[in-house]
Design goal:
Length: 111
């Protein structure tokens, strides 16, 4: 199935588009406006109330559980992060049913 996904992504996008996605979403400098922690700080400091819950796979090689917890802390969210055991970065694909159930529970929960 992974080969199908990779082939689909390659056939559905240009090389320039895939390159742009990778270059624009993987920024190492935390001071860069597009680094996830920098964006989280802007969200946390805005006057709008934003609530959310972050999900991470226990085997995620792109964003570790610790990094996702730090992101949640920067956002100032009181919700615990959800760790999906045995999943990598694509939690919504790797454990779709559980993720959807968790999302519905979060959206229907009165805070």
């Amino acid at each position: 199935r992974i080969k199908f996904w990779v082939d689909y992504i390659c056939q559905s996008n240009t090389v320039h588009g895939i390159k742009a996605i990778l270059e624009q979403t993987h920024v190492e400098d935390e001071c860069d406006d597009w680094h996830v922690l920098s964006m989280a700080r802007r969200i946390a400091s805005s006057s709008k109330e934003v609530r959310g819950r972050l999900a991470v796979g226990s085997e995620d090689a792109l964003a570790s559980v610790e990094e996702v917890q730090r992101l949640s802390d920067e956002l100032g969210w009181e919700e615990e992060i959800t760790v999906y055991e045995g999943c990598g970065h694509a939690v919504v694909i790797e454990n779709a049913r559980q993720w959807r159930n968790d999302l519905l529970h979060f959206l229907n929960h009165d805070n």
